[in-house]
Amino acid sequence: MANNSKLVPAELDLCKPSTAPKGTTLFNAGDKCRLFVFLLSGRIRVDLASETGGSLLLYRINPNDSCVLTTSCLLSGDLYCAQATVEEDASLLTMPADQFFSAMENSQEFRSFVFSSFSHRLSSLMAKLDEVAFRSIDHRLASSLLLHAKKGFTVHATHEQLAAEIGTAREVVSRKLSQWDSTDIIKRSRGEIQLLAVEQLESIAEGR
Questions:
Q1: Nearest CA among 196, 183, 182 for reference residue 154
Q2: For residue 65, which of 2, 141, 145, 128 has the smallest C-alpha distance?
Q3: What is the average per-residue pLDDT within 144-155?
């Protein structure tokens, strides 16, 4: 049950469980918000799309977390302004809007949980804004590669995915990766990127 965690209010035990496989779109920009969502397992990414077809990763929803955009849209009545996609098979709890408002009105524990999650995610979004606005492409791309690196320092991500993560164009990522490939910092091959000079990437990511 949801209340196995001390941080999760009992009201979530009344939520309807559901599953969503990898690749599922949970909501699109312009959709009306009808459900409060709490993630039990898996991972969801929320991206802001531009009119030119590009996108920017706003944040990821991890287990035992809720979606700040969903909370905001429920409270304000606004439509979604971004898209949520399941990155790893997800197990969810969903609460209808009327039940959400009832819990917000009647449960101090639930209100504290919702606003605490909201505050935490808002801080993360401010950090994302700081990164995109003030940190170099080199710093952001090196950080993203290290974050994605699996065993053996291998990254399985497209140039487009990396561009969305760091808030730039795919062509910019491709040029930078080509430069790093030519200086043996990385090695590109079909469908993956090998990190050859991890310490150098760490230095770039830390701004050294």
A1: 196
A2: 2
A3: 85
